[in-house]
Amino acid sequence: MKGLIVVNAYAKTTETRQVSRLSKELCKLGVPTDTVRNDRFFARVGLDDAQGLADYDFCIYLDKDKYASRMLSKRMRLFNSAAAIEACDDKMTTHILLSDSGIPMPPTLAGLLCYDDGADIGDSTVDGVIAALGLPVVIKQAYGSMGSGVFKADDRRDLLALMQRFKCEPHLFQKYIQSSHGKDMRVIVVGGKVLGGIERRSDGDFRSNIGLGGNATAVKVPSIVRDYAVRAADILGLDYCGIDFLYGSDGEFYLCEVNSNAFFDAFEGATDINVAEAYAKHIVGVLH
Fold first, then answer.
1. What digits encode the pLDDT tens for the residues 25-67?
2. In the list 4, 32, 86, 186, which could disulfide-bond 56, CB 3.0-4.6 Å?
3. pTM of the model
4. How far is CA 165 from CA 159, 174, 192, 216, 261, in A?
5. CA–CA distance from 251 to each of 45, 46, 172, 183 (Å)?
6. Cα-based angle 73, 172, 145 (whole degrees, multiple of 5)
7. Residue 192 confidence class, pLDDT cut points 50, 70, 90
8. Percentage of residues in the chain with pLDDT exceeding 90?
């Protein structure tokens, strides 16, 4: 058995800690891997598409290029699948797929997509967001990671400015959960099992992302959160994911985002849980 790890075409280096950890744990199981950038134009039609892929049995796909993942999935098993990655990459699609699942999520509106940069946002449109979600309100670009593309509007003026800014891009509006300001719970799921959780906190930002200066500490994952996390991973068809939960004022937890390629460096450091090993064993188990 041999594996391929694919990273973004414009990554500064292919030897990130995430890749190194996965390669090391797979090697321990007797499974060698090669790491390549997604710069070979994997998605090609009407041309030779072999791309030297015959030697590989599976691919850990650490990019978000949906065209390459769709084409690679014709040749080998992807972790995660192309459909699962797409479902998580678009935040609004994630919420739609998880709706009616019994998993609590913050009330959310899909942004109205505009095709004219010179168009004005109508008063009734702004009022509609406020009526549904109140103020402050969170505005997110549908595509983004590590907290980028996430903003908070404290008043109507802020909201209108952000709506104008993102009107020609896929985006969403979400109810601001005040009780979770600057903190959330990240849960890692591998092969339908919760490995553990961390609480991420930020002292200077309403977003708790580690990449934005937040810190992480290990926490015990409540049984209800475990149930929500496993259910979400199953619905989205994920082999591996990191799921972020917000703390409600009533003791409830709200699923905020699902990350198909969640970084686990801070998680491993805070919990002493070997995420790479668990993921490697899952991959080998699936393929045997």
1. 999 999 999 999 999 899 999 987 767 888 999 999 999 999 9
2. 4
3. 0.93
4. 10, 17, 39, 32, 28
5. 52, 55, 25, 14
6. 50
7. very high
8. 85
Q: Token digits for 160? A: 């209108």
Indicate the burial class of 161 (C-beta count within 10 angstroms; 0-12, 13-18, 19 or more).
middle
Question: What one-character-per-residue DSSP string does 40-105 give?
Answer: S----SSS---TT-TT-SEEEE----HHHHHHHTTTSEEES-HHHHHHHHSHHHHHHHHTTTT---
Query: Cα(213)–Cα(57) distance, rounded to whole angstroms?
Result: 38
> How far from 89 is each of 85, 93, 166, 209, CA to CA, in Å?
6, 8, 17, 17
Q: Give CA–CA dist 237/231, Å, rounded.
A: 10
Do residues 137 and 153 lie in contact, with contact meaning Cβ atoms separated by under 8 Å?
A: yes
Contact 258, 88 (CB under 8 A): yes
Tokens of 98: 């998880």
* Residue with the two structure tokens 């090669």: 34
Q: Which two tokens stand for residue 2?
A: 């041999």
DSSP-based three-state secondary structure for 20: helix
Let me know the angle formed at the C-alpha of 185 by 251 and 282, rounded to the nearest 5 degrees. Answer: 125
Residue 265 phi, psi dihedral angles, 5° rounding: -60, -55
* Planar angle of CA 233, 235, 239, nearest 5 degrees: 40
